[in-house]
């Protein structure tokens, strides 16, 4: 177990540095620069002042040198300061991180709560009307882009019926109740969960169909165990083993999808922060968000590996 943990941590570290290096290079290749954003808001700035700013920000140095200096600061726990606001990057991220974690976590829970029962029922009644309908809905949900689902939700549930708010996290900054938060979270949560629901349903159905045909399931039925116990205790538990891996693999997609969803619904999270920072060419914030997201994904994937041991006792690590 110890060797496996060290090996996984080593792979995660190499992956992390690769992600940050690639992100830094791609960020520096974007059209425009932070100086252009500053000049657009202050057209009277002189060429000498621009040169001083470039030197102060380190933008006059090669990209590799900039990355090495940034990495050195990162290893000391310093993510730098925002070019746009002047605030510490870590402070900017921590203010927005809670909103993203709440939205991503809620959408993951909602997608699993809906997908697992529907996928299980579809597998228990193959080729039935319910199976065809659920498979069709799963296909539609899985193929619908998040931004399109968000716009459809806004049109029908906000513009036409006025059932839900169009965006934001609270109606008023002075009234931050849990009920108001949940009310605002309904549409972005389901818009983000829609694609996940379709994918999970298809996987649960196919895994359950395979599992329910195994010999140990027939043996359990022959022993006189109730249908509910056979399905849940023996069938569903074993069918969920591959789903654990799929959930782990979907974490990056879920976080990436939150960027679009937060933008559509004006949800104050790191997705909105990332969009604003990209428009302003705010390199430190872009890299700070990349670090947080990459760390969360890598840690999540490592935890998924160990959850395997809980779901399937046959899995051993050495």
From TrEMBL:
UniProt keyword terms in alphabetical order: Cell membrane, Membrane, Transmembrane, Transmembrane helix, Transport
InterPro entries recorded: BPD_transp_1_N, MetI-like, MetI-like_sf
Keyword Metal-binding annotated: no
Source species, domain of life: Bacteria
Membrane topology: Multi-pass membrane protein
GO biological process annotation, one example: transmembrane transport
Main location: membrane
Domain ABC transmembrane type-1 stretches: 97-304
Transmembrane annotation, as ranges: 9-27, 101-124, 136-157, 181-201, 239-265, 285-311
Compartmental location: Cell membrane
Entry's family note: Belongs to the binding-protein-dependent transport system permease family.
Name this polypeptide is given: ABC transporter permease
Organism: Candidatus Egerieimonas intestinavium
């Amino acid at each position: 177990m110890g060797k496996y943990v060290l090996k996984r941590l080593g792979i995660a570290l190499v992956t992390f540095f690769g992600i940050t290096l690639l992100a830094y290079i791609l960020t520096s290749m974007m059209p425009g620069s932070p100086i252009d954003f500053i000049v657009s808001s202050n057209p009277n700035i002189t060429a000498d002042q621009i040169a001083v700013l470039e030197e102060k920000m380190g933008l006059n140095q090669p990209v590799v040198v900039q990355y090495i200096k940034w990495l050195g600061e990162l290893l000391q726990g310093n993510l730098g300061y925002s070019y746009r606001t002047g605030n510490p990057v870590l402070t900017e991220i921590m203010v927005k991180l809670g909103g993203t974690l709440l939205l991503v976590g809620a959408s993951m829970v909602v997608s699993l709560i809906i997908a697992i029962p529907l996928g299980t029922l579809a597998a228990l009644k193959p080729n039935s009307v319910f199976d065809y309908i659920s498979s069709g809905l799963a296909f539609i949900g899985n193929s619908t882009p998040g931004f399109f689902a968000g716009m459809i939700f806004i049109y029908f549930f906000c513009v036409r019926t006025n059932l839900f708010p169009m965006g934001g996290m609270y109606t008023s900054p002075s009234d931050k109740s849990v009920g108001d938060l949940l009310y605002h979270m309904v549409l972005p949560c389901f818009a983000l969960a829609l694609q996940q629901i379709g994918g999970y349903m298809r996987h649960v159905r196919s895994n359950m169909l395979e599992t329910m045909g195994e010999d140990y399931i027939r043996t359990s039925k022959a022993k006189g165990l109730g249908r509910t116990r056979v399905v849940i205790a023996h069938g569903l538990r074993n069918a969920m083993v591959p789903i654990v891996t799929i959930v782990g693999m979907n974490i990056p997609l879920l976080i990436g999808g939150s960027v679009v969803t937060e933008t559509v619904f004006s949800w104050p999270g790191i997705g909105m922060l990332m969009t604003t920072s990209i428009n302003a060419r705010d390199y430190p914030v872009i890299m700070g968000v990349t670090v947080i997201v990459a760390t969360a994904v890598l840690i999540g994937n490592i935890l998924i590996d160990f959850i395997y041991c809980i779901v399937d006792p046959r899995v051993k690590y050495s």
